[in-house]
What does this fold into?
Amino acid sequence: MRAVGRSAAFFDLDKTVIAKSSALAFGRPFYRDGLISRRDVVKSAYAQLMFRLGGMNDQTMARTRDYLAALTKGWSVDQVRQIVAETLHELINPYVYAEAAALIEEHQAAGRDVVLVSASGEELVRPIGELLGVTDVIATRMAVQDGRYSGDVEFYAAGSAKVSGVAELAEARGYDLAESYAYSDSISDRPLLECVGHPTAVNPDRALRKLATENAWPVLEFRHPVPLGRRLRDRPAVPVAAAALGVGVGVAIGIAWYGRHRRTRTTSAQKS
It folds into this structure.
């Protein structure tokens, strides 16, 4: 008989645990501090649009990875961490699905480790995890040299690479993936869902919904977001998560909003 080891629950973040992207909030400080230019707005907006329309295949993931590397090259790691810290406490007010938070609690109560799996940079994901009581994350790692991003990506946590991260952690921890769980909203996470014994589609896109139906996977619809701040005040021990592509694609909406907002305020001030 096969020995059964420990099990874990792997959660994708955007649209799985939170109801909206946190890109809107992250765009403002990155733009304000000069990390993002107006030219980057156009590139990021286009990449974000292509992702929303067509999802992520190997080619688009490779382009996104290379874009992230070029975009962040030369950025000060300390500056990024400071922006993230300020954003977490002052700017971000994502809405966490109450259903997702309850599900995370159930897994922890059952003795399972909860792991946040995200293509976002580790500088973003890990502080969020620490803030919310989740210590295990699988996230994108950028190479650093002399305190600045070198322009190389050590590990891009997207697509099949998520499975590599999961497998590595499972081997180190002794997880039995056949007894483990995974949750995601996107067909791009098909490899992640297929690597565990208990995959679940959450608010799935059309392609993932079709795949889930074909494989008789559970499909969950999360419809009740709860403000993160309120949840932290009321139940500080509950681990919830919020992420976007914090250092690259995904900030475009926030940048564009901030630019329009700033121009509007400037114009109003000049008129007055």
Summary: The mean pLDDT is 76. The chain is about 50% helix and 20% strand.
